[in-house]
Amino acid sequence: MSFLIDLTVSGLAIGALYGLIAMGFAVIYKATGLVNFAQGEMTMIVAYLAWTIATTLTGNVFVVVAGAVIGAAVLGLAIERIVMRPMLGEPLFAGVMVTVALAVILRSSITFIWDAYPHALDLGVGRDVLRAGGLSLRGAQVAAIVTLLGLLAGFYVFFRFSKFGIAMRAVAADDRAALLMGVSAARIHALAWAASSVIAGIGGVLFAMVYDLSPAMFALGLKGFPATILGGLDSVLGSGVAGLIIGVTENLAGGYLTPGMKDIAGFLMIIVVLMVRPFGLFGEREIVRV
Question: What is the predominant subcellular site recorded for this chain (predicted)?
Fold first, then answer.
């Protein structure tokens, strides 16, 4: 029984990181209808930015996190303004291919700006092991779970009650009608890219605090994307919850079956779920009238 509990709790910890990255995917899709295939690379860039601040300026955790958040927001806004805004009105496939090209550029920039070696992001906290009731988790893992739960609650309030949240839902539902009602689609898109970059960046920083950072971190996007599909591309909250589900499923599969099953368990799950619910566990069914 203790083995099951250990697998479940550690699965929730890694699933929280998947959930943060998945929420980043969903925020952009909900606002723009676009899948950002550079999400993993943006996560990696923000983690390297945090490491740069920690090693060149100060290792104070609050300064590093604040700098990473600001840098992530600037990165998201720059990508939206310079790269994605000129693509407004172009075919959706063209926009997707632009994000693929952006992913390659950002991935290559790591070795140009930094290097190809792994590095430890040691901020004095996060790597310490916390024990409670026979369970052991690192501080950054606990922080990831708490952060995800906090963001889930925050986004629920944001979409239900805030002006920008309602405007984002309106643009996602019908951008032309939203424009006629005075909603600036460009502003909403910029907000979505900034928010997505910040959310995924926080996930990247927390991951690096536990597992170190390296140019291979872009693969986090491949781990977070199945959670977005499982939860529903248009469901920000569902994507976060699906990240927890996939994290636990992977750990249980690796612990009770074979270690090799851990890498494919999430993908097997989305195949099964999408055969029953093509729009995901929490996504909205799209009704097309003909």
Answer: membrane
